[in-house]
Amino acid sequence: MSSEESPQITRRTTRLSAANSENAVDSSKSCALKPLSVNDLLYGNSPISLEELISSFPGRRGQIIELMSLLGPVNSPMFPTFVYGGSSTGKTSIVLNIFRHLRRPFVYASCITCYSPRILFESILNQLMLHRKSDSNGYSSIKRCDKPSDFVNLLREALSGVIGTLQGNAEKAGSKKAARWPNGKMVYLIFDSLNLVKEWEKSSTILPFLFNLYDILRMPEVGLIFISNNSLDTYYADTGFVEPFPFHFPDYSEDDLRQILLKHQVNKNLYSSFLDVVLRPFCRITRRVNELSTALLPLFKKYCEPLGDLGAVPNEDMKRKLYGHLQRHIAPSLNETFRVSAGLTSGASRSKDNERKGIVKKLEACTSSNELDFHMSTSAKFLLISAFLASRNPATLDASFFDSTGGSDNRKRKRKSSAKSLEQKETAEQELLMKGPGTFPLERLLAIFQCLTSVAEYSPDVEGQGNRATMGDSGYIGSHVLLQLSSLCNANFITKGGSCPLEGSTRYRSNVSEDMVLKVARSVKFPLSKYLYRR
Amino acid sequence: MGLKNPAEQAVILLRSRLCNPNFIFTLFSDSPDSNYSKLKYIISSSVTESCNNSVLLLGPRGCGKLAVLELVLEDLLREFPDMISVIKLNGLLHSDDNCALKEIARQLCLEHQLAFSKMASSDENSQFLIAMLRECGLAHKTVLFVLDEFDLFAQGKQRLLYSLLDAMQSVTSQAVVIGVSCRLDADQLLEKRVRSRFSHRKLLFLPPSREDLQRLLEHALLLPSGSDLPHEFVANFNSKLLNIFADKKFKDIMDTVFNTDSTFKQVLTFLFSALCHLDLKRGFLSVENFKDALSNIQRQPKLECLKDCSILELYILVCMKRLEVREHETCNFNSIMKEYKSIHDSFQTTDYYARDVCRRAFEHLLRRELISFLDNRGHGHSIEFRPVKLLISWQELYQGLKSYGSCPAILYKLVERETTT
Q1: What backbone phi and psi angles, to 5 degrees, belong to B323?
Q2: DSSP structural state of residue A176
Q3: Mind listing the pLDDT tens digit for each residue in A64-78?
Q4: What is the average pLDDT across A12-40?
Q5: Closest approach of chain A CAs to the CA of B49, in angstroms?
Q6: Domain A373-402+435-454+477-534 fold
């Protein structure tokens, strides 16, 4: 501890600051990073040839050639281009690799990382002015810029600077170093994920501004490329904007997907026979490469289970056997296509146990095990149940459900259901489907929670894990309950609805499905059905 | 640096022509009743007669308003050197008054080699502006204010417009205010006090006629004989191009382009696309290049989007369409799931997937903007309860299903049936 080591320092130094002061000496001695130059506006260290480019993107030969013809020969001006297509279709990587192949300098800004106009503008200016954020300048940008008018002025300056350097390079061409220099005198600006700009506050001015940027700048040495998920017609503006040249990346077809998935496999024959069986049903759900590859991974492991040698080339007989082994797993796995498993190891061991017992997992069992697969404290579980009941039951019935005997022993006597009441039940069900869970104020939630926990205390069935002490007396709601509430809100189990216009207090809404609450109630042995209002 | 392929050089030359609006519009500046001559007359007369003036250039986007203005300004700067200074403002950038005043001050300082201070307040900037106007007026220099996207300046309190036009009237100044807008009613947006100070001179810019289009084609694409391209290549290229222009198929293509959208911007985009398709090995344009260009600019984005959907997503769209036809006012994910289940129960489809999978497909559709939430404020509700609406029509959905390829027949039946009931 620093305060013990150096007792003559009167001010207490924390451990963190002491550690930092040691490191600060080291960093100044460490070699400073090289200053950036125009050569750093290229992508990748080594250039690639056209054949390499096309072979690394199966199924995209047409798009690559067309995009290269749009960019044109070196030093030819271009109209701003708008590249659009679905997710994970390769737009960004193809554009960047085309620039790597052509060795032309560009500036890249993605609207995912640059989430506000100021960050977007400063990122582009930093790259153009060859400024690197480092410790010496306090990780600040080279210029502060948050208005489009400042951005245009600074951009003009920066672009003229870069273009001047490139023209100087072009005149010195022929020296040995020229091989590593960028080609041509044009600079390209690439704006990625443009569809996210629609959700910004000032999107109604920023979007037309970006599309009109080429006309505002009036510099033929600048090329603009926009990449987006959605087509141009989803970018509506009041008075319109100058439309860039649209370029579409269609989603991959099944054959392309097969080539892409086969690309990095060790045993291509085995995987190809696997895909013969599995690709078509999965393509009916989704054709995105990222989702397919994660969904097919566990299934492939299962496919290879009976094989002793993973490098084997399967013949027809083996293929049939493997298919027979896999078949009953395909349908349940389709229903788990998008599932991100919480604990991969525990799931795997669990399945091994089941295999040993010879249980075939059926569809229902797969999707809804009777246990929660994450841990919650007991008071959080009761809070969740109270929230669900508060959302589900109408407030007027609280008194009858939650009276001092801790539950409604006197249920409504069942009347014979006439046709009219059946109809009413149906419409009520429809309403429930449409409207969703109701809102409740905080006081109601806490009142129900108090009632439920007092019941739980007196009931002998509650899991006694020493939690009774923490729940306290029936009249005391500790602050830990309110903390639990805020963590439940953060986990999206409870959301804050709008505030009631008369009272002004915030109202909450429970977001969990009935299945989950049943699981939770089962885990604390709480009789949920007694408290649910059924119409 | 070896000799470039002459085709490549030609392509670079033509592309720089198409991307340079000044080149294109010099063609239309010769006739006396063109907008070019009228505009030139207005501005030059106010320069020579030392008076104030204001004019509005109106017309749809891509019809050459700014390009013609640039040509006029270039010519006037050559004719009257040192008598004109130009200040350019853009509504997208400078609609905020403080921003605009700062920009005006900056450009004035730049022009007259004065030191510009970024820290000046907007009061100081406006006083500077008035002082400069007075000085320029006394020195018989005209200040031209070009206000692009004029309708954006007319939003809010219009303080900048008022101060400019007021200064023109009260101070001994020589200024011309040129507003450029794509809204044909831009002058109706002005406040009463601003409109009274504005002369109601308007120049209308229209898309070209068919004959003008033909002249434009030849002007833009025929290679000039004076360039440093080999003479034989130029002659070959031009003769082949003239043959194409006379071809009937080409005339049909041009008619299609003219009928859909005949603004200059669209035609230039079409020519640019045709140039991109030029086969560099052959070196000449052909009718196929123009056909490819036509399909490039005539896109059907919603159809393309539908072709990219997976079969489960198509099911969800068809369910929504059926709910819409049955006149349910709003539908949300739960009601769609109910419909999905009922389809499965009645037709025994093979495509019945779990709720989680369907919810993810639903989110994909939201991302593609084929469906959207009805209101943007309902963030408190979970995704299953928020009402959604379809953003495509029945015809688009039907066309999309037809061109899908491996669409299950049940979906056709479902969509067709709903139209007859």
Answers
A1: -65, -40
A2: G
A3: 999 999 998 888 999
A4: 62
A5: 32
A6: Arc Repressor Mutant, subunit A (1.10.10)
Given a cut of 70, whether residue B56 has pLDDT beyond it is yes
pLDDT over 90 (residue A185) = no
Beta bridge partners of B331: B388
Q: What 3-state class would DSSP assign to B411?
A: helix
Q: What is the pLDDT of residue A407?
A: 47
Q: What is the DSSP letter of B127?
A: H
Does any CB of chain B come closer than 8 Å to the CB of residue A418? no
Average pLDDT, integer, range B128-134: 90
pLDDT of the residue at A459? 53
Sheet holding B84-90, edge to edge: B84-90, B142-148, B175-181, B53-58, B202-204
The average pLDDT across B131-160 equals 90
- pLDDT at B24 exceeding the cut of 70: yes
Amino acid at B244: I
pLDDT higher than threshold 60 for residue B243: yes
Report chain B's C-alpha Rg in angstroms: 29
Helices (H), B19-158: 21-25, 35-48, 65-79, 91-94, 97-111, 122-138, 150-153
Residue B201 Cα, gap to closest chain A Cα (Å): 22
**Chain B touched by A411 (CB under 8 Å):** no
Count other Cβ atoms within 10 Å, centred on residue A230.
19
**pLDDT by residue (tens digit) across A140-150?**
888 888 899 99
Q: What confidence category does residue A5 fall into, taking pLDDT thresholds of 50, 70 and 90? A: very low
Out of A20-34, A164-178, A482-496, pick the least confident. Answer: A20-34
Dist. CA A461–CA A452, nearest whole Å = 13
- In chain A, positions 236-265, which contact chain B (CB-CB < 8 Å)? 239-243, 245-246, 248, 250-251
Q: Which residue has the higher pLDDT, A500 or A246?
A: A246
CATH of domain A38-249: 3.40.50.300
List phi, psi (to 5°) of B142: -95, 135
Nearest to A285 among B61, B334, B357 (CB): B357
The residue behind tokens 């434009």 is B216
Q: A417 in the Ramachandran plot: left (φ > 0), alpha (ψ -120 to 50) or beta? A: beta
Cα–Cα nearest to A181, from A47, A50, A78:
A47
- Let me know: does B370 contact B306? Beta carbons within 8 Å: yes
Mean pLDDT of B189-197: 90
Domains, chain B? 6-15+224-297 (no CATH), 31-204 (3.40.50.300), 303-417 (1.10.10.10)
Q: Which residues contact B398 (CB under 8 A, 6 or more apart)?
A: B415, B416
Q: How far is A348 from chain B (nearest CA, A)?
A: 21
For tokens 């400073």, name the residue: A32
Task: Tell me the HSE value of B18 on the side-chain side, using a 13 A CA sphere.
Answer: 28
Taking alpha carbons only, the member of B221, B370, B215, B209 closest to residue B285 is: B221
Is A489 within 8 Å of chain B by CB? Answer: no
List pLDDT tens digits, range B308-357.
999 999 999 999 998 888 877 778 898 899 899 999 998 888 888 888 88
Cα of A134 to nearest chain B Cα, Å: 27
Contact B273, B293 (CB under 8 A): yes
Q: Evaluate whether B345 touches B305 at the Cβ level (below 8 Å).
A: no
Least Cα distance to A127 among A148, A143, A150, A111 occurs for: A143
Confidence grade of residue B270 (pLDDT, cut at 50, 70, 90): very high
Domain map (residue ranges) of chain A: 38-249, 254-337, 373-402+435-454+477-534
Contact check, Cβ <8 Å, B93/A338 = no
Which range is least confidently modeled, A4-18, A67-81, A268-282, B123-137? A4-18
Would residue A250 be called left, alpha or beta, if left means φ above 0 and alpha means ψ between -120 and 50 degrees? beta
- CA torsion B3-B7-B13-B19 (nearest 10°) is -130
